[in-house]
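Quick question: what would this complex look like in 3D?
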Amino acid sequence: MLTEVHVPEDVPAAVGLIVSGATVLGGGTSLMPALNDYGSPPTELVSLRRTGLSGITVTGSTVTIGATTTLSQIEHDSRLQILNPVVRSIASVPVRNLATVGGNLFVPQPYGDLAVALVALNARAVPAGGSGPAELPLERPALVTAVTFELPAPGVFKYVKAARRRWNSASLVTVAATIVELDGLVSGARVALGGVSDHIVRAAAVEEALLGRPLTEETVAAAARAGLGELSPADDAYASAWYRTRVFPVHLRRALLGR
Amino acid sequence: MKIVSLRVNGAGQAFIARPGTTLLLALREQLGLTGAKRGCAQGACGSCTVLLDGQPVVSCLVPAVTVDGAEIATIEGLADGQVLSDVQQAFLDGFATQCGFCTPGMIMSAEALLDRNPDPTRDEVNEAISGNVCRCTGYEPIVSAVLDAAARRRSRAGEGAKL
Amino acid sequence: MPRVNPIDTEYFKDERKAGDFTVIGTTVQRSDALGHVTGRTEFFEDRTFPDLAHVKIHRSAHHHARIDSVDCSEALKVPGVLRVITHRDVPSNWYVVLRLIGIEPNDEPVLAEDRVLYKGEPIVAVVADSEAAAIEGAARVRVGYTELPAVFDVEEALAPDAPVIKQAGTNYFVYEGHHARRLRFGDVERGFAQSDRIFEWRYSSAPIEHAPTETTGCIVVPQSSGRLLIHSNTQAAFFTLDNTALILDRPFTDLQVKGGTVGGGFGGKVDVMVEPLACIAATLTNRPVKFVYTREEEMQVSSPRAAERIYIKDGVTNDGRILARKVMLYVDAGAYSRHSPYGTTKACAHLPGPYTIPNVYADCHCVYTNRTPSSAMRGFGVTIADFALESQMDRIARALDLDPLQFRLRNAYRDGDLKAHRKVAEGTALIEVIQRAAALVGHELPDEYLALTSTTPRGEKA
Amino acid sequence: MTLLRGRGYASVNYPTGMNLGGDPSQALIHATTMGGFVISLSSVDLGQGLKTVVAQCAAETLGMPMANVIVDTADTDTGPHCMGTFASRGTHRIGNAVIMAAREARDVMLAVAAEELEADADDLETDGTGFVRLKGSPETKIHIQDVTLAAHFKQGRTISGRGIYLKERNYPVPETGEMDPDSCQAHACTVAEVEVDDETGVATVLSLHNAYEVGRALNPAMAAQQVEGGGWMGVSHAVFESTEPYYPASRDHGPVDFCEYLMPGPAEIPVQSSVILERPASNGPFGAKGIGEMTANAPIPAIANAIFDACGVRLTTMPFTPESILRGLDALRA
């Protein structure tokens, strides 16, 4: 049962409330559905809405997105074209106007496609309270004030989200990757997967199978085979574990080769 | 309990909110604006869509105390007296309603789209209303009505420019 | 402008009266549309009452279990909780949906007594002065169970060694002494013997939810006269009134139902599920009470369209005349009857589809399983049967290398044909819609098929 | 990747009304002082437009403009009994009851007008714009407001009418299933076109082409709404919907909200084209049959048959998920 909703004006005040046991409320799009219709232990929320954590800065190739920046703000920021298809693949307009970048880092799979993309972009989370930026996905919940990453060269970032519907549908398989090629061979690969486990999968075996090889159908097919061992999908309302595994190679190929 | 002040459809409003009072319930139960509907309380049906500082949001997921001072627009504020907005009129003329439960949220999503994008493609309309569930119409009359409304608005803007 | 489908007036010209209507047949604006687009249309939940109390339900955690204990003490400690309601508070603890259409037994309790037959079955209702308190109270009810074996498959439920889940003694509804609603017409075995080819296949479906955007609900307001005013989104106001009065064991004139504006029904708001408990809560607290399903309750606890399993065996001549059709149909009623026995009869009445087949045999079973009770939905008894029947028609046409529309036209029922349920067909138009649809997509039909009409008697002994 | 296209057909019929009858609906109608006609019902409008269509039935029967008709419905204190809105019965049963009530009211209206015009009621007619006039001499006329004023304050008569429609209850013969299961039957034939992705098993419904025989399209735009919305629901049933995705083996993973309960969004709708045929039913209001339910039915098998046509996979279990199609494709390729 919701017992209090705090709306602090700055981060230290928010941190203080969290330390005393309150739960962080970003856009509310994941948390509020559970609180609206279901019983719960007494719960205090800390809304970050007024903590000044909203905003996007791009300095050179370095992008910093404040934690309470909404998915819609990213969608409409011309400097972040790269993330436009990512955020538009998530939920719907009236949800994206609430949902925040920080919140997306913590939503359960098969949701959280922006976080999948941020993992592929090697983004770092900036925690509140001075400790250094942390690699994604975060190992444990923490108050994040921003995420930051380097914009990749054009064409390096790849993204495909397979869902049951064109818009507003959860992930069956999400593939986000940064692929760098040098002299016709893959010289750098960072591949993140959504929808295929209870957590975001950093697909090391896929990356390894790509490195040093030409980005061809054969290479990607072999990488997909290598990646099967990294999947641990579950049955849910959208699709079975069998189906997600079965179509993973198709969507990996469509993401990496564009066909 | 906190006192929350909002501007709703241009008028100042204040009410006392419990922690669990969402913007939707505040509008419906405390301000008497029942146009926004509760279809799921999960943010997944869009029946509760209103504009929060100009942006469409699912008001069922917004604790009212977090939006103190905000500007809210609801379906009740669209018509100018007896004169309907272009979107409302296009929905009416195009038989884009059946049971009517999704209609207020659908219209608010459409208004927000046209505010941002006066000449949307069919695909852009599809995306803009994909968070609003309609179980009756099959969407086609709704998409057509939004495109029709866009044309009406553009034609009105064109007339305005000539003056 | 509204899209209007063209009316092809070339068909049934003689029977269509000349257009001498003034209003009929013309597009008139919907009388409710202005309210819809302005948000002024008043749905049941758009009424507010300052002292409104709320009902929420504690539901079964198991598919099939004996209830050993119910402990409401923690629920009553939640601030704002006013009352808990158990089956002991329900004057006549049986839903009587089928009694009103003359079918017994009443098999479903309003609140569970000593057992639960599906996950989500209501056990305790909690009344509180806020929705949040009612939710919290319902969550804190503790029920002790002994789990019992559950049955989920319609054919397994009918097997001799299946656990019997129904107190009536059978896992199926008994139709006047029969285990199924029967259809017997002609001699189906002789028909098979006369046929060149036999085709037998199985079809099935999963349950489907009405998924109205407005969930099922009501607000009950005690009146100064002592009567109860029920604001409801029921699809059937008197159905709700009569059933509720029987459960409350109160005079029918004690109740008034107001409604008429519904945020989508599709058959899902026919069963009387929320009004009786809301009336009891309003009576016990003497306050206006709202009971509205959450979205999850609407999706998983409110009755869906029944899943069905259908076996069809057809005997057909090489040139495409169906001589015999045998159908074994199983309706998954879930844990309780609701309207499923009636829907199963409706499915039986629909067989063998819109075709004239001289020998027909069907057993339509209404089977109980440990899942959410199914009930009426748009196309009740027919939708799934049509899927099976028309898939069957397509497969046979392909197997015989016949044009799929010609095969249907060859067997289409016409005026004067005796249907399997022994009513003479009249007003038929299957031939014409097939011909017109073929024209719509440029599917060419030979002249002899274009010349067929529903009003020309079939030139053969049926 | 290959996108495989196919076309499928289905033809169906559908009964109007509770199939065993015994499902009455009533209507009362009375005139107000100034020429309004109030139809009192307890019937429910689910959004299909019942209130509008019964007003049309009343206006047509009375011979009065739509603006004179008021529908007051769904209050059990003020409206007479109605069985309910289901079983494709609303337009048929309630429409018939309203017509019956309106005829009775019209007779009184004409009698009152006859007295005012000093004419024989049998010689009077309505002009549809609000006047009652003498057949053959249209200048001899009286406005409905003057008729109802006279009825109230001069002649002391109630212009009112009662209507009921009941199809007698029928009981199936247990041994044979002999029964009378319908009031009339509407008809449909649907042609569906689909596209199947041979790598993912995703079937996209491209178009539905329908011919519907509806008895009489009382309000063509509202008939189109039923056809189009029902066609969408058919697509939804065919390729998306289930409360139990793992039926019957497991009750797990039942969708609980509109995220999990899948239905076509606006981007998944097929192109629909439809033609209406009218074979008026002898017992229907102006010949109308109930079509609200049937519009979802024919698309489902038409889509199943189109998927087979596209890719050779026969779907025998609803819904036709990408998984079921892909398993079928895999079996064909094995």
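Answer marked as accepted. The first strand of chain C starts at residue 53 and ends at 59.
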